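Anyone? Bumping this.
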Amino acid sequence: MTPHSGSPECEYSVRPIGSVRSPLRSPADAPKQGSEGAPDAWIDVHEQHVEGLQGLRPGQEVVVITWLHQARRDLLRVHPRDDRTAPLAGVFATRSADRPNPLGLHPVTILQIDGRHLEVGPLEALDGTPVLDIKPVLSRER
Amino acid sequence: MTPHSGSPECEYSVRPIGSVRSPLRSPADAPKQGSEGAPDAWIDVHEQHVEGLQGLRPGQEVVVITWLHQARRDLLRVHPRDDRTAPLAGVFATRSADRPNPLGLHPVTILQIDGRHLEVGPLEALDGTPVLDIKPVLSRER
């Protein structure tokens, strides 16, 4: 019997559509969030996905979704912001990179587009981080 | 040689941490975005991930990340909002479900928490949609 689409036995595979090129080389250098002094960076989109960029333009706000490949996937509780004096919190109540599916969400502005290369910022992701998706930002009204 | 973390040959696997329980049963019923009249819905978090919810509370705004398991992954250009009179746009310039890694981002408010079950809204995801992650919303200042 095929497991239900959302069951814990299901597994789906993601593949990078590009990767981050950044002066940030180690987690020690990286701010926790883009708004905390992160640099601008480039996203190098793979050749086979370049057609998907059509319609993006400088000045636009987008969300970049990354795969935080250096994260731990076996933690369900963490000390927020790596502060070991802070009480443990569930990973879904934090933005910790350590979580079962280590997806990073980065709201950035597109600064320039050069073919398949997008300059964006501010971006706290490390150099070499896989990029899984880029989406335009929608405002939320309820 | 191991491929570079962000190279197109790399593949990472994601597993649902839960799934959506919603009155929305077919794509024809679903609004394009949560703000367009989507109903409230439940997220049933799997037993093994319940510890990760610690610290979440009703009233909080979170982003739910889903896996849009019914989407097409082979499209790089689409007609925005399924309007076939609209010019084709790159999928990364749209919020189309059809994209190489069909990740859905849903900003919602937590309405109530009952053990491993979270009522959230508004949520345009279909019943049975796998949930990959839940993250608190950060305001962005640049």
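Late reply, but here is one note on the structure posted above: The radius of gyration of chain A is 16 Å.
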